[in-house]
Structure formats: C-alpha cells, structure tokens
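Table 4 source record.
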Amino acid sequence: MVSLLQSAVGGWCLEDPFEERSDIMKKRKEKDFFLALARWFDAWAGDEVVAEADSYKIDWVRSLPFFALHLMCFGVIWVGWSWIAVTVAVSLYFVRMFAVTGFYHRYFSHRTFKTSRWGQFALAILGNSAVQKGPLWWAAHHRHHHRFSDKEGDVHSPHRNSFFWSHMGWITCRKNFPTNLKAVPDLEKFPELCFLDRFDNLVPLILAVSLFTFGAVLNLFAPGLETSGMQMLIWGFFISTTVLFHCTSTINSLAHKMGRKRFDTSDESRNSLILALITLGEGWHNNHHHFPATVRQGFYWWEIDITYYLLRLLSWTRLIWELTPVPKRVLQSSRLG
C-alpha cells in the first residue's frame, strides 16, 4: 500500500519538504558567503548573475573591506599625527582625485581625449589606486548613470532613493558589485584593463604596503620627522582614501540637490563651485550632463576646473591628445539662465 501511494505522489509523503528546502537554503547561503569572500580578491569570482531582489540587499561580507576602510581611520587615536604624514595624505588625496576625475571619469567613462595603449594602462593604474574598484566597473556604472540619470534604474539618484543610499549605500548592495561588461565593449577588449578590474584590490594593497614601508624607513633614518609605518599607513592610505571616497560621492548625492541648474537637462544635475573645488572640477555637474562628451566641465573661464587645466598640461607632453572642446552651439542650447 505504501509502495503504491509513494508511486502515485512521487514519494514526497515519505520526506520532509521543509527540511529539504532548509538544506537548499543553507547550501545557498554557504555558497554566497564563500563567493563574497572570494570577491575580496577576485571581483569577477563566481556566478555574477544577480537577482532583481538583490537591488537593495547589502552584502555585508563582501562590504567588510569597505567598512574596515572607515574603521581604520580611528587608528589615528593611537598613531597620532605628524606634518609629513598629513602632507602625504593631502597630496595623495589630490593626486588620486585627479586620477578619478581625469582618468576614470573623463577618459574611461566618456573618452573625451586619446592616449596610447601603454598610457591608458598607466591611467588605469593611477585611477585604481583611489580604491574605487576597477576602471571597467567604474565606467560601466557611470555610463549607466547617464543613461538613467534621476530616473528608474539610476542606482545612486538622491531623487529615487534616500540621500544616504545615493551617497554610499548603493555601493554595498549585491546587485551593484558585478561589472557590466556589455556597457564597456571598448574597454573589455584590453586584457590588461580586465586584469586590473578583476583584481581591483592589488594596486591599493601595493600602495598601502608602500606607505607603511615609507613611514618605517623615515622612522629609522629621519626620526626627527616623528612618523612611523603605522602612522603613514593610517594617514596616507586609510584617512586619505576615506575622505577621497566621500568627496567623490558628493557628485552622486549633493550635485543632484544643491547648486544652480543652468541648462535644461532631463535630470536634477546642478552646478556648484564648492563641489567643483573639492573634486577638482566635477562640481559643474549640470554642465557635464548637458554635454558629457567634452573634456571640460567648467564651460566658462570663471568656472574653476582644475582637472581640465591639468589635462591640458598633460597634453603638452603628448602623453594624451585630441581633447574634445565645448562646441559653441552647446553653450547656447537649452539654456535656462
């Protein structure tokens, strides 16, 4: 009788379906856990197909290095400060801000100037040192942002989500970790860029070790500077990188909330002198959304755009060339005031 009943219903009545489902969920969680750990070292590890339900799900394990970056700043309580450590931190902030704005943004995302293949690789390494993931990931997300700016699908719009989410929450969620290679076919064809994108923590790790070594050597041979390996690491890497991240993120959050809207764009991008100063020119965000294809975001002479000035200087060395200017027709079109 039992045999007949088992045959009729597929045998499910002799097993606990809830126990089986629980085992499946447990195995899935274990797989997710180990994949999250693997992605600390290999950003492309595992199956990158993420469900829509993961759009607002924070991947706590994958995001631990991001949280640790912030927590390590409290190390300043124990290591103190010195003029040399603070100078290195400030210098690295500006150098890497230029790398993000000039290279990750204006070159890899918008291709507003040209360079050689070796030059491109050097720009990618410098941008990667900012600890804002790989060049393909950064460019893919930014291109997506322009396509859906402040509309459904814009993952860091302060008008679609909370201010906190647009500023930093979005970068911790599971759906936004994979690199959308379909958005960057022009970059994907370079294996060296793919390598940097896949192992996006390699360059930051080398920078961190170099800073610690630099501080230790100074402590040994120039004790009068009153620095150390840990002090240089805390200031030069953790504090400088954390401030760099949050200043860069103001363009996602504040630049769509504060400032003046000169051009009639389909989003809420705005121009702000304050944001332009702390991001070396990115604060002219409404200009940028009006015409993203130009290397210059401060469209007028009085709009300070330090990144543009530095790129112009770099072009004199012939390391980069064919910087795309702002057409006159762009300055006159759809202007609000």
